[in-house]
TrEMBL record:
Key words, A-Z: Membrane, Oxidoreductase, Transmembrane, Transmembrane helix
Record organism: Rhodopseudomonas julia
Alphabetized SUPFAM superfamilies for the sequence: FAD-linked reductases, C-terminal domain, FAD/NAD(P)-binding domain
Name the UniProt record assigns to this protein: D-amino-acid dehydrogenase
Enzyme class: oxidoreductase
PANTHER family linked: GLYCINE OXIDASE, SARCOSINE DEHYDROGENASE-RELATED
Domain of life: Bacteria
Alphabetical list of InterPro entries matching this protein: FAD-dep_OxRdtase (IPR006076), FAD/NAD-bd_sf (IPR036188)
Transmembrane segments: 7-24
Domain FAD dependent oxidoreductase: residue ranges: 9-397
GO MF entry, a single one: oxidoreductase activity
EC number(s) reported in the record: 1.4.99.-
């Protein structure tokens, strides 16, 4: 069957799914996009908006086993755990700790670099001609620290960034505040990465991409996917909302909700929800010159249209628990300390679920036990950053092209 006659179904209309749908459409396929709520309903709406090309350092760095107890138990650290969820999450945590060796961390960093290191260029290519171009903003990416010694404490991670070609400029006191006047005087040291980018409104960006997809003939269905049909080990269709939709290829791009569908195909994925939070402050975009990582709180402040979004934090608490108000209080407290001159008129808050595999590497590629079904999920907190390239890779695989990347580290059936 010629690729231009093939029908592909993408499950999930977040940024990864929409990017995949557009690249499939550009490869000449008939494409159906299915989501239970519609475009950008989850983490694709609430993320920090950052195209974090240099974020190749996984959470599984060698120091994690020593840091984790203090991070969880301290009210001043950006990691939170709901203790009733601990028994269910324990197998995931134990598997994650197995990844915390220098060798494995370096391998994971290399895998992440393969998907995210050119994220600005990938999003510019994705958005070209869609009407979403203006949402993609080239920028520098600034890290702000209380002191040089705080920066030097992260030398292992910055060594990994250097190894993968990322350079930075150091900014002392006055130079830092000339670069970003909104920062508190207590922040005295910074570094800045060139050639990064951000999305000035992630939700509207994904909606604009989805509108372009449907304007060119793509079909969007709002329904729950309940089954992926197979015959002789190959996908034949997707059941959603009581209807069966025939296809020759299917992409799972539903974030954390891809897990149950993967299990139905015989694939168990060690994955937890890394619950993320944001607060938004009413403010002119010019109040910040670009995205800033506030290292002490491990959150990013990003200028967006008419507001500034403070996003980040990690909480492990499963899929059912409501947002925890003390986490919003944490963001508010560290945000006010770092950016005291903002007006601090809050305009919104959000909590959502980021799909976190135990080894921090996204799942990209065909399921061995279900030919024609492809994984495109598990990007941790880098879903927006890695979405455009992931979508292109999967579209190439389905269209019969060989991607210019070794996909072994991303295999859905990796040990």
């Amino acid at each position: 069957m010629q690729s231009e006659k093939k029908t592909a179904i993408v499950v999930g209309a977040g940024v990864v799914g929409v990017a995949t749908a557009i690249w499939l459409q550009r490869r000449g396929l008939n494409v159906l996009l299915i989501d239970r709520e519609g475009p950008a309903a989850g983490a694709s709406f609430g993320n920090a908006g950052l195209l974090a090309s240099s974020a190749v350092v996984p959470v599984t760095e060698p120091s994690l086993p020593f840091k984790m107890p203090g991070m969880i138990l301290s009210a001043d650290k950006p990691v939170f755990l709901r203790w009733p969820h601990l028994p269910k999450a324990m197998p995931f945590f134990l598997r994650t700790l197995q990844m915390c060796t220098r060798h494995k961390t370096e391998d994971i960093a290399a895998a992440l670099a393969g998907v995210i290191s050119d994220s600005l260029e990938q999003h510019q290519a994705l958005a070209e001609g869609t009407g979403a171009e203006d949402f993609v903003v080239p920028c520098e990416y600034l890290y702000a620290y209380k002191s040089r010694s705080d920066f030097e404490a992260s030398s292992f991670g910055f060594g990994l960034r250097r190894k993968h070609g990322f350079a930075w400029q150091e900014l002392e006191g006055g130079e830092l505040h000339r670069r970003e006047p909104a920062l508190a005087p207590e922040l005295t040291f910074g570094i800045t990465f060139p050639d990064h980018g951000y999305i000035r409104d992630p939700g509207r960006y994904v909606e604009a991409l989805a509108a372009h997809f449907t304007a060119l003939g793509g079909r969007l269905v709002t329904a729950d996917v309940s089954d992926i049909a197979r015959e002789n080990g190959r996908v034949t269709g997707v059941r959603a909302g009581g209807d069966m939709f025939a296809c020759e290829a299917c992409v799972l791009a539903a974030g954390i909700w891809s897990g149950p569908l993967a299990r139905s195909l015989g694939m168990r994925v060690p994955m937890e929800s890394e619950r993320g939070y944001h607060l938004e402050i009413e403010a002119p975009e010019e109040k910040l010159k670009g995205p800033v990582m506030i290292a002490a709180g491990q959150f990013v402040a990003t200028p967006m249209t008419g507001r500034i979004r403070l996003a980040g934090v990690v909480e492990f608490g499963g899929l059912e628990a409501p947002p925890d108000e003390k986490i919003f209080d944490f963001i508010r407290r560290v945000g006010k300390a770092a950016l005291p001159d903002l007006p601090w008129r809050e305009s919104g808050q959000w909590m959502g679920h980021r799909p976190a595999p135990a080894d921090s590497i996204p799942l990209i590629g065909e399921f061995p036990a279900a030919r024609g079904v492809y994984a495109a999920f598990g990007h941790h907190h880098l879903g927006l950053t890695g979405s455009a390239k992931t979508g292109r890779i999967v579209a190439d695989l389905i269209a019969g092209h060989t991607p210019n990347i070794d996909l072994t580290p991303y295999r859905p059936d990796r040990p």
